[in-house]
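[Discussion] Sanity-checking designs against the backbone

I'm trying to build intuition for which residues belong where. Below is a structure token string of 119 positions. I'd appreciate it if someone posts a full sequence so I can compare it with mine line by line.
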């Protein structure tokens, strides 16, 4: 059974760092795109970062220069390193996986992990 398992959320002070991990298990094709979206209360879900199985990355404008997404070649696990966190980064962070490498058809989602940045 396919599953996306997320870990690493929590509470951190402004300026601090957190690391989120997401591992896909079950039946997963080797060519894929994985990443993170986030949703704050009352706001739409927005792109944080994605990375293809080939290593191509894409970041949301609000996290460029502060967040880094990575994955080990051949593994369906991604890590999101979040530095210089701000209160506006507070949100539920959702791991996602898809097979359209443009990132336009992400149809598999995790349950979400909460990140809270205190001011």
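Best answer:
Here's mine. Compare freely.
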């Amino acid at each position: 059974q396919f599953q996306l398992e997320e870990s690493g959320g929590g509470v951190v002070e402004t300026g601090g760092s957190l690391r989120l991990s997401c591992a896909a298990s079950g039946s997963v094709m080797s060519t894929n795109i994985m990443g993170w979206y986030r949703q704050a209360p009352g706001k739409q879900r927005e792109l944080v970062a994605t990375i293809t199985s080939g290593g191509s990355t894409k970041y949301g404008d609000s996290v460029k220069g502060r967040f880094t997404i990575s994955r080990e070649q051949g593994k369906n696990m991604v890590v999101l390193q979040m530095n210089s966190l701000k209160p506006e980064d507070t949100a539920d962070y959702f791991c996602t996986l898809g097979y359209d490498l443009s990132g336009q058809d992400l149809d598999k989602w995790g349950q979400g992990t909460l990140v809270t940045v205190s001011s």
